[in-house]
Amino acid sequence: MSLPEGYFSQNESKMRKLTKSLYGLKQAPRMWNEKLVGVLLELGFNQSKSDYSLFVKSINSALIILLVYVDDIIVTGNDANEINNVKELLKSKFMIKDLGLLKYFIGIEVIRSQFGICLSQRKYCMELLTEFGLSGCKPVNTPIGQHFAVMNFCKKDESVLTNITGYQRLVGKLIYLYHTRPDISHSVQFLSQFMHKPTNSHMQLALRVLRYLKRSPGKGILLSKGTSFHLTAFADSDWGKCLDSRRSVTGFCIFLGNSLVSWKSKKHGTVSRSSAEAEYRAMCATTCEIMWLLNILKELKVPINLPIELFCDNTAAISIAANPVFHDRTKHFEIDLFFLREKISARIIKTVATESNKQLADVFTKGLLANQHDMMCSLLKMHDMFGH
Questions:
Q1: Class (C level, CATH) for 22-100
Q2: CB-CB neighbours of 160 under 10 Å
Q3: At what angle do helices 200-215 and 122-131 cross, to 10 degrees?
Q4: What is the pTM of this model?
């Protein structure tokens, strides 16, 4: 270590022993990130403006992509020689260990097959079931009941859960789990709203999600092989879903080719006065995600055909998006109105009507029947590599 600027001690010859590890200091992660970013920029990488953990290097026809999570790094590209060069350059700067072909990363297992690559968290899921004593439980077919809103979740006289820490720990782990399990997104979104004051009913629902996971703990997202890189989006909303605040729930999913790459289930920040308004706001939220994905794909040199189809099952919302004339029922959400219409007029987005039974975002806004839920999981390209 070098002494800090301004420090001076005459005839100083003693060594200093650290009583605290550098990894324990608050500034250590920041300093490590600055050092790593500086080295990567020196090596010719460009840091993504859309995702600061992504670095891209383009040399003639070779494209090298590097993804950083703290001190874990994934390197990929279309030129094996350039990838090896990057590894050697990193070895000259840091003490690194090459773990070979990607198989496991931050709790996500990467499984290769003839169909493509499957991202699964089976080990994490099995450990979660064991931790909460449900490794031998009887599984259920859905993570949340179709009519759960009429149950006791919104009663004011419900007894508050005594073990709040256990509930928070469970929901926190479920939040990490749905990075590869979009089928539990709506359930986890609902449960995470009550982290500060959960009730016994909320805990029972959280345990039901675990019982659902027991049915197929190895299920994950299948990134299938293909030559098409077109983006397709589905947006949906359940109007007035929350019985306490009457706010709606937005759900969307976006496909790159045949592979699901982005999804979300989230309660609106404001109350919508009509189902058309709720659906329109869902379309705006989906458009924001599409714009971010377009920026990422542009930096990765992936050409995308425009306009991007945005499927919605509400004809009133589609009409509002297409009609430039203001109506009394739309003037109170003026900013969203301009935002989506601007993207449609620029031919970035193209709204397309779809039937309700073909709306893939349904699973992100409400509980479904078992056969509907299974069909949606299949259409979302979820696959269990460990199933029989």
A1: alpha beta
A2: 10
A3: 140
A4: 0.84
Mean pLDDT of the chain: 84
What is the dotted CATH code of the domain comprising 226-354?
3.30.420.10
Which residue type, as a one-letter code, is found at position 145?
A: G
Please name the helix (run of DSSP H) or strand (run of DSSP E) that holds residue 136, with its range, or none: none
Predicted confidence band of residue 356 (pLDDT cuts 50, 70, 90): confident
DSSP lists the bridge partners of residue 241 as: none
Nearest by Cα to 105 from 130, 72, 133, 78 = 72
Instruction: Give the contacts of 245 (CB within 8 A, at least 6 positions apart).
Output: 271
Residue with tokens 């620029």: 346
- Side-chain half-sphere exposure of 356, counting CA atoms within 13 A: 8
Q: Where are the domains of the chain?
A: 22-100, 119-215, 226-354
The pLDDT of residue 154 is: 52
Identify residue 363 by its one-letter amino acid code: V
Q: How many residues does the chain have?
A: 388
Under the banding of pLDDT at 50, 70 and 90, the label for residue 278 is confident
pLDDT at 252: 93
Give the other-Cβ count within 10 Å of 8's Cβ. Answer: 6
